[in-house]
């Protein structure tokens, strides 16, 4: 459904460092810089599907929830460990979330701008 998504952040450099660490276990990496904007993509892809952009006005950026796909449960665990090591607040440790469906395995953290960031695997 989505081609790309951008979120506003207070400090692009700090958020970029956080996402470089947190997305690496999921195959994500910094893939493009366009002025003050920083894009992330998967592997060697030229597609930059996730962007960090500076807030356009003074004040706080609005909270968003982002769920990144993980290839397996080990990747969810690695995402969580990398995100927390990069300074994220732990919201929910890796585990099954049967309230969503029987195989929903996810971890949730809060990024430097207060966004609720999830890594999820849907396979058993």
Automatic annotation (TrEMBL):
Domain of life: Bacteria
Gene3D superfamilies: 2,3-Dihydroxybiphenyl 1,2-Dioxygenase, domain 1
Domain VOC: 1-122
Species of the source: Streptomyces piniterrae
A Pfam family of this chain: Glyoxalase
Name used for this protein in its record: VOC family protein
InterPro entries cross-referenced by the UniProt entry: Glyas_Bleomycin-R_OHBP_Dase (IPR029068), Glyas_Fos-R_dOase_dom (IPR004360), VOC_core (IPR037523)
